């Protein structure tokens, strides 16, 4: 059951699109200078932390964050950590979308040409299972990825529906820890930033 295994969720550093609020999934853009600085701060924060496994999204913003943070040599690409596929909303901000569709929300409306929130939840469940299998005796597993997939993964960790991720804000370059209280999955630490 891997009770005791902690999942350390690390959101990538800032990109031009995360700065503007644009939905960024399959568009493979690099970190900004500030994003790279945040990754260096992650390196300092995580220095000395031993992970039994490190998984990273295949997108360059997550891979770059992981490498700068000092875990690139240990990381294994995990396709389940790709960000939510936003379909036709890729590259648009919520405000821009709401100008066309008043009240639109990624959490409650159809994602035309993309993934349902439930499908992203299923991907998150698979990542959780693989992460727990990577540290069956307890330990720490790092997951370098993106805001929405990590928010959904956290919701699924504590037994919420994938839409429960809407309740969990997550900044760029942040660290969150999923852990245990006895046999119950809990959020041990959330959205630890470096401002």
TrEMBL record:
Coiled-coil boundaries: none
Pfam families reported in the protein's UniProt record: His_Phos_1
Q: Where does substrate bind?
A: 61, 83-86
**Keywords annotated in UniProt:** Isomerase
**Cross-referenced InterPro entries:** His_Pase_superF_clade-1, His_PPase_superfam, PGM_Phosphatase
GO MF terms held by the record: phosphoglycerate mutase activity; protein histidine phosphatase activity
EC numbers, comma separated: 5.4.2.12
User: What is an annotated GO biological process for this record, any one?
Assistant: regulation of phosphorelay signal transduction system
Q: Where is the active site?
A: 12, 83
Q: What is this protein called?
A: Phosphoglycerate mutase
Q: What is the native source organism of this protein?
A: Tunturiibacter empetritectus
Q: What is the lineage of its organism?
A: Bacteria, Pseudomonadati, Acidobacteriota, Terriglobia, Terriglobales
